[in-house]
Design brief:
Blueprint (H helix, E strand, L loop, with lengths): L2 H37 L3 H33 L1 H21 L3 H14 L3 H11 L2 H30 L5 H20 L21 H4 L8 H14 L1 H14 L3 H52 L3 H7 L9 H12 L5 H29 L12 H24 L3
Helix pairs in contact: 1-2, 1-5, 1-6, 1-7, 1-10, 1-11, 2-3, 2-4, 2-5, 2-10, 2-14, 3-4, 3-7, 6-7, 6-11, 9-13, 9-14, 9-15, 10-14, 11-13, 11-15
């Protein structure tokens, strides 16, 4: 497919992926108010429901990613992407109109399915890209998540000032506009030459876990990766509830703080990480990141100063260097013919962390903030995250000692 013919489809794919990321960040600032509006409960109980909704979204994304990808191999990229976008737009309308928590729960389940189109979008890019341009175009895909995570909280926060349902109407309009755009510019790239029959065994999301036993050199690092991801998911899981409870932040302030964090992440991952890795190496970077995050979690959990925490928000990203370093160590520990298998295991491990962390963090927040709690400590989830940094360090030490020469 020539360059002029690929430009508009690529723009459509990138917009679709940005909307996926926006959909995650969009609801974070307004979810506490929306749940309280629907259920008439306090912030502690709203946090519990928020954890359930986040986990249901992650579960469906985990289960349906391979399924949606395999459907696109059989029926084509175009119908899968367009149907997902149409469903996404309708899902946002349902969330905007939801009058019960169960309808909101159902909408989050559907939202998790529609957000599982990332593999299909990546497959479309691979279909239309010559070998020499694949890496650069996949780099664009990576950039969309950073853009979406910055825009999502900003849109959700500012529109949330108009009411907790306003951001969902805006998201529905964006998804609908992109659907119309895609209808006219998106070609089908699956031909009879590459089409394959649908098989349930290929759509199994647990397949990567079955193969982990063949990667003994990286199993401790996968355990470390899982614990670290569980700790870091505290920000999307609890930040809106925590800052509203402790500091009384509005949805706009919450959105700004999350966007500042997203910008910091983009700066660290896009440039600073290279400097840190060059100076400290991968092992040193892991130790620096674990130490930095330990201190940051303690400060957030214990310091009761709204201005200090808001100013500190972009600096929190300076600790977001552990994941690239761990991935580098795992890639070196696996053989060349195991790299694809390793990436599958990493993806599945991250998905499980996304499922478990919101439930755990919101339950702890609720236990330490609801009326009658033995101790009022809204920062308790962050203290747990600090403790997980210590456990990560112990796992890393044990792994290093087990590899030391006798």
């Amino acid at each position: 497919m020539s360059q002029p013919k690929t430009r508009l489809p690529i723009i459509f794919i990138l917009i679709t992926l940005i909307l996926d990321a926006i959909g995650i960040g969009l609801i974070l600032p307004v979810m506490p108010d929306l749940i309280r509006d629907i259920e008439g409960v306090g912030l502690s109980d709203a946090a519990i429901w928020g954890g359930i909704l986040a986990t249901s979204f992650a579960v469906m994304q985990f289960l349906c990613g391979p399924l949606v990808g395999n459907l696109s191999d059989r029926y084509g990229r175009r119908p899968v992407l367009l149907i997902s976008l149409a469903t996404m737009a309708l899902d946002y309308v349902v969330m905007a109109l939801a009058g019960s928590i169960w309808l909101l729960f159902a909408a989050r389940i559907v939202g998790g399915i529609t957000a599982a189109t990332q593999a299909t979008a990546g497959a479309f890019i691979a279909d239309i890209s010559p070998p020499e341009r694949k890496a650069a175009r996949f780099g664009l895909i990576g950039a969309t998540f950073g853009i979406g995570f910055v825009l999502g909280p900003l849109i959700g926060g500012f529109l949330g000032e108009l009411g907790p349902r306003a951001p969902f109407w805006a998201a529905a309009a964006l998804a609908t506009a992109n659907l119309i755009f895609g209808w006219f510019v998106l070609p089908e790239t699956v031909t009879d030459r590459i089409r394959r029959p649908f098989e349930w065994r290929r759509a199994n999301p647990l397949g990567a876990f079955r193969e982990m036993g063949r990667l003994p050199g990286v199993r401790p690092l996968l355990a470390l990766f899982f614990l670290y991801e569980c700790a870091m998911f505290i920000y999307p899981a609890i930040w809106a509830y925590f800052t509203q409870y402790r500091f009384g932040w509005s949805t706009g302030t919450i959105g700004i703080s999350l966007a500042m964090f997203g910008i910091g992440i983009a700066a660290v991952q896009g440039g600073l990480i290279r400097v840190i890795l060059r100076v400290l190496g991968e092992r040193g970077t892991v130790w620096y990141g674990l130490s930095y995050n330990f201190v940051a979690f303690l400060i957030i959990g214990l310091v009761d100063n709204s201005t200090a925490i808001l100013l500190m928000t972009p600096l929190l990203a300076l600790g977001a260097v552990v994941t690239p370093a761990i991935l580098g160590l795992m890639s070196k520990a696996a053989h060349d013919n195991q790299q694809g298998e390793l990436q599958g295991a990493i993806s599945s491990t991250r998905s499980v962390a996304m499922i478990l962390s919101p439930i755990a963090m919101t339950q702890i927040f609720a236990a330490f903030t609801r009326e009658g709690a033995p101790m009022i400590l809204p920062g308790a989830p962050f203290l747990l995250a600090a403790s997980l940094m210590i456990v990560c360090a112990l796992v890393f030490v044990a792994r290093s000692e087990s590899r030391a020469p006798a």
